[in-house]
Amino acid sequence: MSIKSAASKIFAKIIVQKTQIWATNPIQTQQKVFKDLIRQAKKTQFGIDHHFDSIKTVEDFSKNVPIRDYEGLKKYIDKVVQGEANVLWKGKPLYFAKTSGTTSGAKYIPLTKESMPFHIEAARNAILHYIDETGNADFVNGKMIFLQGSPILEEKNGIQLGRLSGIVAHFVPKYLQKNRLPTFETNCIEDWETKVNAVVEETFNQDMTVISGIPSWVQMYFEKLQQKAEKPVGELFKNFNLFIYGGVNFEPYRAKFENLIGRKVDSIELFPASEGFFAYQDSQKDKGMLLLLNGGIFYEFIKSDEFFTENPKRYTIGEVELKINYVLIISTNAGLWGYNIGDTVQFTSLKPYRVIVSGRIKHYISAFGEHVIGKEVECAIKQAMENTPIQINEFTVAPQITPTDGLPFHEWFIEFENEPTDIAAFAEAIDKEMRLQNTYYNDLISGKVLRKLVITKVAKNGFQDYMKSIGKLGGQNKIPRLSNDRTIADLLKRE
Questions:
Q1: Mutual orientation of helices 423-437 and 439-446 as an angle, nearest 10°?
Q2: Which of 20, 141, 179, 218 is at a distance of 20 to 30 A from 488, taking alpha carbons?
């Protein structure tokens, strides 16, 4: 065992012990975070406008601070972007994480000196929990890669801005710099296809042990490696045994990954976003990701089926239940207050608090009152593929409200790697699972409001071509699993 491996095991044990202290005292931990956030932001413009000096309890906070999304906070964020200090948080941010907005163009998410360290520590601690649980630390001696956005940063009114993954690239610890690929020059390539080709060339003859990124884009990297090597990725990288991912559910990709790699590898799921690092998988044995309650974020939760009602109840960590779909609301040490990030979660454990990402509050299908969410379609397709040779590269679902004939239906756009021999039987299997997952959907089928789902095959690389056509190929961009309209569906039909 190398010195680096031995040291990482010792460090891992220390971090796990520290984690257990706050994880076993969740309510007290969140109360401390809450009070600290209010105290530090009392004299900001937002704090003054929302009477932070009179907020003593979470109930006070809920009365004073409404739930907002980016549009709701935009008048404050615009002031921060213009260079004003003490608006949402004390002083000015260190960075803006620039993301794509749906209605307002680019979104500028502030990152402060208080919030930035948690993004780095959380990713590190996820790996350390893995080391402590499995005893596997040999990978720290090999090469590691994260497929990410460009680290080149712009400047706006004295504050640097870029993609979150590009900003984080500047904080890689020195002890990992020698192990890290690709090179800075390759990471700076903006065109995604050009970048992946360059990454393949740089890593082809390296001892890659850890590979990280959004599954759909890592899959593209693996396919190019396999084409060049003419053998599975696992034979090319004999010591590759850990895949780290976030952003989407890995399960629909798992079979294809194992085929490309040629064997199973361990994986760690992360739940990062520009707005904060919320959770990571702390155990290979237990389902879900550990919700980070001590990371400068105060959490509130609203039941998804109540979210669009007037004044829905806001639950705190001590009030949540298992298997309920909640909209995640955050208040952070970057100055986001009562902020709806758009993600929905379900708790898989309350001791400690672990979550899975169940979808997006805006990514759903309820054209007929069915309330279908991402978790349900992902679970249905996974179950339908089980014990079959069927493999998929990507999929998305949209309602067909006005078919040329017959009843309306849900249309599943699927890019297959290994097609089913009987597409109708596969559609039937998915539909059966969907009816088990969602009682509303089942009632609509039974009541002949909807007919059973229809699969539309997407040509090879069809989803990549679609993402390229809208300028979102690569990086942290991903295909929505669900749409309540035909925007994506109609573009895919044209490909």
A1: 120
A2: 218
